[in-house]
Amino acid sequence: MIDLRDSRLVFALLLLLVGISVLIFTANYDGISVGSYFSNAISNTHKNAIANADVDQRPAQISPDSPLGRKCLRPGVINCFGFDDAAALYYNWPTGTACDEALRGKTNYKFGNGRQGQGNTVAVVQNGECIFPEIDTAMAHSGTGSLRITIPSHSYADSGGHFTEVFRRNRDGDPDGTYIGPGSVYGNVLYFQFYERFDENFLSSVFQCAGGGCGGWKQVIWYGNPPNGRSSSSLEVTINNGWQRGVPQMYGQAGRDYYGIQDVRGCTYKSDAKTGSDYPEPLCIRYKANRWMEFTGGIEISGESNQPASRVQLWIDGEPAIDYNHAKIDWSGSSG
User: Quick one: which of 178, 176, 138, 133 has its CA closest to 158?
Assistant: First the structure.
């Protein structure tokens, strides 16, 4: 673990909430190198989905001849996750629930703020049924599978469970202290790339929230270093479908640090907008159904803690979407 009193920044946790296929890379201030990759798809059915059938089995190595494998061999890579092998999913679930039966025979791995133990895949109970991310061998961006998260109707937040990982673990499966930021051997810039596929039903649903409007579902969150930090905190960068506009957006610090819509393209907030269709293409880049979308971005940590001096960028299918250079990253308190 890092002595957080001395470390400048951290981004050691990656939380996938809705569904993704991802690549992440880290870099020094002056250069770019590659980081970690995820692959994930969303669907309505459990066909061809595989839960972790053998928790003692070691996940298969990513082939060095595959597109992902070649990226993983580049200098500066922190980690790679291929989502081809169910053995790479280490489940955690609430005991005394339907998940005890659904995941019978599996190990219920530790999963806490300190992230001691291998747990990385969280199951939840929705409408009395155990719901959890699974490997889908029928859908892949590359390789032989993807991580699928199914969103049931009439469900609450964290609808389909989630996958979350630290950047690196030691041989015992615990976080090894790897972080990214000023003072890190990996530099102060985190780059990422991921591929995500949504089905039509998911994108066309207008989700309702009890007690008021919905802020929109989240795709991916980067947040603080174990044992500190929460996915909603002052050290957080999130991609989401803001207010269900159908347009990928980003924000920090639980929404208090607002990065705009896709302002760099001229796709800005409209006070008179009635629906998401008021943010049309080509000015805005919208989510698209039944195809893999590529999301590439960077988080450059600059200046002092919690000052508006860091830069967050996002490209979608190679097109610039977000470039915000006043982001706040607070690594001085309990979030860091």
Answer: 133
Measured in degrees and rounded to the nearest 5, phi and psi for residue 203 equal: -75, -30
12-68 pLDDT, tens digit per residue, is 344 444 333 334 444 333 222 222 333 333 223 333 445 444 444 566 778 888 888
String of DSSP letters for 150-199: ---TT--SSTT-EEEEES-B-TTSSB-----STT-TT-SEEEEEEEEEB-
Summarised one tens digit per residue, pLDDT across range 163-206 is 998 888 888 888 888 888 888 888 899 888 888 999 999 999 88
Does residue 268 contact residue 260 with C-beta atoms inside 8 Å?
yes
User: Residues 78, 186: contact at Cβ < 8 Å?
Assistant: yes
CA angle 113, 217, 293 (to 5 degrees): 105
State the sign of the Cα–Cα–Cα–Cα dihedral 127, 128, 131, 137: negative
User: Which region, left, alpha or beta, applies to residue 88 given φ > 0 means left and ψ of -120 to 50 means alpha?
Assistant: alpha
Nearest Cα residue to 328 out of 251, 246, 267, 241 = 251
Distances (CA, A) of 147 to 41, 155, 235: 6, 20, 26
Starting at the edge strand found earlier in the chain, the sheet holding 162-166 runs: 91-92, 121-122, 162-166, 13-16, 218-223, 236-241, 248-252, 257-258
